[in-house]
Amino acid sequence: MPPDLPPPSGSPPPPGPRLLSGDELERSSVVANNTMNRERGLVGVNSYARELGQDPLAHLASRPAAPSWLDLCSGEGRALREAAGALPADAVLTGVDLVGPLVPRPSPPTLEEVVASVDHWAPARTYDLVTCVHGLHYVGDQLGLLARAASWLAPDGLLLAHFDPDSVRWADGSAAGRAAVSALRAAGFDYSARHHRLTLRGGRSLALPFRYIGADPAAGPNYTGQPAVGSHYETRA
Ligand SMILES: C[S@@+](CC[C@H](N)C(=O)[O-])C[C@H]1O[C@@H](n2cnc3c(N)ncnc32)[C@H](O)[C@@H]1O
């Protein structure tokens, strides 16, 4: 069987890894890993501009008014803070992270720092820019988050997220990454395998043909060299 097809229906499922719920995953050592790089700034060596291949401010600068940026899995929020200093007073900057900044600092008035899981949080507005810089690697339902994030984009907004197809698996642990990338491309995402980066231009409502069944925190290191989560799915008609 080619590696990217789901197991045949009707056959008993072969044993796969033990899969965790969202709450269990968030308590696991792979997510609560204090050696992660959570301190990327806006530009420079350890930065969003470098990881995303473009300076987030360049996209926001083209907005006629009130530029808005939602950063999912924002870590210390350094990139947002640096952006706040360069954007007008009507900018809207939102960072969402499970842990939030470990070093508490007063927030600039344009920045809202939300401590929450992206599994449960949803914004009350749309954004010109939505980013997730090396955050999906720790999220169980990555495809569900990408589908929700697509709906949080403004009509001419831009979504940029790092994504590792190898982390997407069927229930039995076999590879589902090619199927996931095909479905994402069919929904309008571009995927650069070289940069492990998804890009979506323009907000939309979409449903991917995957049903999330749980996360494997023992999937091992991904392309970044850091331990990452395996996201397991069944097909959804
Ligand atoms: C590798 S760090 C990247 C942080 C930041 N984007 C950067 O590049 O500096 C991954 C971040 O994802 C956060 N994270 C993991 N699971 C999450 C979840 N379910 N909801 C929100 N944040 C999560 C972690 O707390 C961590 O801050």
UniProtKB/TrEMBL annotation:
- Could you identify this protein by its name? Class I SAM-dependent methyltransferase
Read off the Pfam families from this record: Methyltransf_23 (PF13489)
What SUPFAM superfamilies does the database record attribute to this sequence? S-adenosyl-L-methionine-dependent methyltransferases
Positions the record marks as coiled coil are none
Source species, please? Answer: Streptomyces adustus
Say yes or no: keyword Metal-binding present.
no
Q: Where is the composition biased (Pro residues)?
A: 1-17
| Biological processes per GO annotation | methylation
Q: Which GO terms describe its molecular function?
A: methyltransferase activity
Q: Which keywords are on file for this protein?
A: Methyltransferase, Transferase
Task: Extract the ranges annotated as region (Disordered).
Answer: 1-22
Query: Which superkingdom?
Result: Bacteria
